[in-house]
Amino acid sequence: MQIKNKIKMPAVGFPQALPKRNFSYASFLIHFIMIVLASVVIIPMILPFLFAFKTPLEFAYHPWNLPQQLRWENFKIAWESVKIGLGMCNTFIVCLGAVLTTVPPAALAGYIFARYRTKVTNILFYLIMAGFFVPAQMVLIPLYKLEINLQLINSLPGLFLIMAAFGIPFWTLIYRSFYSTLPNELVEAARIDGAGHWGSYFKIMLPLAKPATVIAILLTFMGAWSDYMLSLIFINSSDRFTLQLRVAQFIGQLGANYFPQYAAGVIISAAPTVILYILFHKKIIEGSMLAGALKG
After folding, report:
1. Three-state secondary structure call for residue 177
2. Residue 287: what pLDDT?
3. How many other C-beta atoms can be found within 10 angstroms of the C-beta atom of residue 221?
4. Taking CA atoms, which of 3, 121, 276, 293 is between 20 and 30 Å from 235?
5. How big is the CA angle at 119 (ends 117 and 125), to the nearest 5 degrees?
């Protein structure tokens, strides 16, 4: 008896079409809002490049057209007219001082509050955190009086110490949350090997906190570089003006006829932070995600 094997051949057909997504007014509204918010951020960054390469006459008649040629002399005029170089040096000193007076104290305080939890340290932690919820605008007058009493008014140290006072609570919270995620066995192993409190911190814990340290340094530096309000209030002498104040006085000193040169000055003032973000954007994004996860 012959046995016939029936072989089933796989059916060959066209791939099934993907299901059509139904139109959603909520999705359209969300995308529209996101586009508007992105435009609010992107357009002010593009406009200075549209203005900075024009002559004053070209800007007056055709402000929204592309420049006919790239006039780099506008940047030279902006640099020399309001002494942007001096303002950049002052701003760098303020940024460096803000980083040195914010990140190390916050890192040490975060470690103490994470590893040595007692009633006293918990009370101190919540007292420091109270400063995180106080906006700078509410305490400007007391700060101004305090700076006068301490003879720090109209000085660069007086400016970056105020920035540190507002930055330490936030970064203390971040460091405390980060150190709390690290196992205690690491410190115990270091103690067994003979490392003391400082040795276990600087050799074990601080290197492990590198992601938090990198984002703290970058964001503190960028925040100090972009500051305008505190510099305007606590700096009075023109020789101590930061870069943002130098650029802000451009129109008042030279007039609105030099608006292309003013746009060039704006580009110069924003260039360092933009370059930092381009170079370290991955670190900033990773650190921001880390900060959000730790606070949560």
Report:
1. helix
2. 64
3. 21
4. 276
5. 70
CB atoms within 10 A of CB 166: 19
* Residue 5 CA: distances (Å) to CA of 1, 2, 8, 10, 251: 13, 9, 9, 15, 92
Q: Which of 42, 62, 91 is nearest to 260 (CA)?
A: 62
Residue 290 has pLDDT above 70, yes or no: no
Neighbour-count burial of 178, counting CB atoms closer than 10 A to its CB (0-12 exposed, 13-18 middle, 19+ buried): buried
CA distance to 14, 170, 209, 222, 295, per residue, from 206 (Å): 59, 18, 5, 22, 19
Sign of CA dihedral 231, 237, 243, 249: positive
Contacts 24+ apart (CB under 8 A), 85-93: 86/239, 86/241, 86/246, 87/241, 87/242, 87/243, 87/244, 87/245, 87/246, 87/247, 88/243, 90/156, 90/240, 90/241, 90/242, 90/243, 91/224, 91/225, 91/242, 91/243, 91/244, 93/156, 93/160
CATH T-level assignment (fold) for domain 73-295: MetI-like fold (1.10.3720)
Q: Which of 41, 45, 51 is nearest to 250 (CA)?
A: 51
Q: What is the Cα–Cα distance from 36 to 42, expressed in whole angstroms? A: 10
Q: How far apart are CA 222 and CA 245, in angstroms?
A: 16
3-state secondary structure of 90: helix
Query: Which pair of structure tokens corresponds to residue 195?
Result: 């490392």
Q: What are the backbone dihedrals phi and psi of residue 112, each rounded to the nearest 5 degrees, phi first?
A: -60, -45
The pLDDT tens digits of the residues spanning 125-162 come to: 999 888 888 888 889 999 999 999 999 999 999 999 99
Residue 261 and residue 254 in contact, taking contact as beta carbons nearer than 8 Å: yes
